[in-house]
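Incident log, structure service

09:12 report received: a user says their structure output differs between two submissions of the same chain.
09:20 pulled the input from the user's history:
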Amino acid sequence: MRHASHWREKLNQEMPLPREFRLSRSRIMYIEEKSEGLEGDAVIGRVFFSKSGKTLYYKGLKFQSLRGAGFKANYFEINSGDFYWISGPRKDQNDRLYGGNRGVCIDDDVRSEYSELLGVTNA
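09:34 re-ran on a clean worker, output below:
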């Protein structure tokens, strides 16, 4: 299935960031691919916002809001048209629609910042 493999390929890529992306316009977010059902591959990673804030960028993918018109999804990827759920990560780690965080990958570049968000200290 093209949709799932397309998403998995992006999760494993290290993409250099264009110069116009700034940390000040980024945030750690929960991103879940929804093209194959209610629960899809998911990741917690750094999302960059366009200057206007209307477009989100993650590892070479460009997302725009469904403006409330989606079913269990709130964004679509511009090039593929695939649906995604993108939101801030929850401190209780129940990011998935029906709870839990099973199978959610955390990008290495945000792992320590995400731990801080959760209130986890490294002993």
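09:41 both user submissions now match this output. Likely a transient worker issue. Closing.
09:42 reviewer note: Residues 2-118 form one domain. The chain has a mean pLDDT of 82.
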